[in-house]
Amino acid sequence: MYCIRPPVLPTRSTQLHRFCNIPSTLSFIRRRLSCIRAMSSHIVGYPRIGPKRELKFALESFWDGKINADELQKVAKDLRVSMWKKMASAGTRFIPSNTFSYYDQVLDTTAMLGAVPERYGWTGGDVGFDIYFSMARGNATLPAMEMTKWFDTNYHYIVPELSPDLKFTYSSHKAVAEYNEAKETGIETVPVILGPISYLLLSKPAKGVGKSFSLLSLLGKIIPIYKEVLAELKAVGATWVQFDEPMLVLDLDAEQLKAFTDAYEQLGESSSGLNVLVETYFADIPADAYKTITSLKGVSAIGLDLVRGGKSLDLIKSTGFPSDKYLFAGIVDGRNIWANDLEASLETLITLEGIVGKEKLVVSTSCSLLHTAVDLMNETKLDKEIMSWLAFAAQKVLEVNALAKALAGEKDEAYFSASVAAQASRSSSPRVNDEAIKKAAAAALRGSDHRRATPVSARLDAQKKKLNLPFLPTTTIGSFPQTMDLRRVRREYKANKISEEEYVKAIKEEIGKVIKLQEELGIDVLVHGEPERNDMVEYFGEQLKGFAFTVNGWVQSYGSRCVKPPIIYGDVSRPKPMTVFWSTTAQSMTSCPMKGMLTGPVTILNWSFVRNDQPRFETCYQIALAIKDEVEDLEAVGIQVIQIDEAALREGLPLRKSEQAFYLDWAVHSFRITNCGVKDTTQIHTHMCYSNFNDIIHSIIDMDADVITIENSRSDEKLLSVFREGVKYGAGIGPGVYDIHSPRIPTKEEIAERIKKMLAVLEMNVLWVNPDCGLKTRKYTEVKPALTNMVAAAKLIRSQLAGGK
Q1: Average pLDDT of the chain?
Q2: N or C: which end of the chain has fewer CB within 10 A?
Q3: The CATH classification of domain 448-543+578-802, taken from the options 1.10.10.10, 3.20.20.210, 3.40.50.980, 3.30.450.40
Q4: Which residues sit in the known binding site for L-methionine?
Q5: DSSP 186-246
Q6: Which residue range or ranges hold the Cobalamin-independent methionine synthase MetE C-terminal/archaeal domain (predicted)?
């Protein structure tokens, strides 16, 4: 076996130099030299949005008709080639291809299998952009497919809709095309494909399919397509293929585990000549799944997450590892941005090498780097000390290869010494650990579960008298469209190009426009539109102690939607009020109730890069106490409705059932901390985004909010089934009546029909009418007619109820 010798890796002090100095030829990278041990390194996947969000801007230009398909594809190809070259220049042995996507990798698999829902009018052949983006975003006449969270991440995927009579056909050759594209640049890659079992288990039955239908019953229909893909990859010279099977880390039953054995035995018949890597990530692999995966015939290698899967390491130590398989050891964190403790990782790898064997161990990332920011070298304003503690995707590639090189007997002592120094700097920094904050948090939490004293039914009665709202009150979730002019104002203020007085004047004018529009539409509980906010998490992080921020630390959430997570590096507190000025300004412009808009502690936690040197719940409690101060200040100045968004509460739920109760306990407690001290007449709202809430409904009830607004429209009213099945929910609830993630404008009749469905299972006096989520990403040309129809639908149903219809 041979190794690919990388160029000399930089020391820690200079490692931030980009992989941009790529020689005109990569021949020196491909030279095969003998070494003490074969250097084997692997990257599960790499961010596809580009270091400066190039894909986002190209997609949005394409959707707006400003560029054509050829121009979009040119941007995409440049990004792919750049990714491959960066990994190759660092010496990576196993470079992934087919991890790029124009929208989502699960949707790509749907296209590969030809599993297009009938409503999109696809008649066969390759699935083109029109059909592909209609499935993802909807179009003028058709709704999009459901979108939900990818396991416990902030990434979203498009949920396949499958039925017993669906005819699968090989309809996208993307995996082969991208392998060939890389090969043309002189780079050998490992094509990555979502595995057949995970694909099926991540799907849902199509509308109208009976409850007895098993998604796994379709395995025999999709395996032939996978075999075609393997045959085509072999024909063009591929020697490895990676099947991502993240479902293996869940609590699977015997039938589901047997399906893995069946699937890979069948695929093994077609994979002769190909090395098959089955990759798992995001959690420990259960003992029964470990036994299954290590017994799979025709599988050459197994990838395990050893960052979030410490128990997987224990399994390897206690039960051993098959001698005929490679272990792709995910030792570099693919989901957070902290620099790797290289010495500790190397020690773990040496232990594994003693079990697996020198030639069978490959150093890898714990999961795809899709979930991290792209390149730390794009951060020109980040504090230098904090910067030394971090590693984005580009730097994680360096870390993987430095560990592989060290394991091969060629340790870069300077690089490792710099790593030790950075770890020591972080652990001893007074900026990280503030004893005063820790003591204050401990005192506030001692002996209390922070529940409001009065039951929600009594509170709702008091609020109804105070607010004087009609039945089926209408509201929106918070944000209104962020126009180019508005973004320009914020940008110029941040760059000191306009004065604070000019900035405040411009934001007040925008708030006035938003309030006037809502009053004209007849919305009952107003919002100020959040024109002063760049992001619902970053805005608050910028005003809290213990947070740091990037300029280009973007991470893909879905499609062209990117977020820039703050970095929680230290103990958290609130130095001063954060929203009081803007909320009181907005309330002074109207006699209607105005919601104070806050982001909840669990969402701030889950949508940030969180410090990994203390338990997450301790950090969350600190944030909760900061938000509690803000809530009480808002109430004190007369804000009667306060929304504390917990969009990401479900997202943080551990994947293993044995760990879920503990998480829900501290997450729900954190929310209650924020509002436990307000008066009965102060109405507390919360909002939750795309997720399946049915299995945590009792925890949602335990949050004790007065009103909860929740995603509903893309999931075929799946949420309502929990109420049909007898769960009693006495607080106010607003299941979203239309999908804001699609440009499609719903009709009044369509929304009215949705409200009627809700009234079939919910009491009239608790139901609210609202969109699915905030309106930030939409245009006013879409928002105005959609909200007009929403209010008209609510009034129509009110009149029908009043008339006894």
Answers
A1: 91
A2: C
A3: 3.20.20.210
A4: 477-479, 530, 645
A5: T--EEEEEE-HHHHHHT-EEPTT--TT--GGGGHHHHHHHHHHHHHHHHHTT--EEEEE-G
A6: 472-795
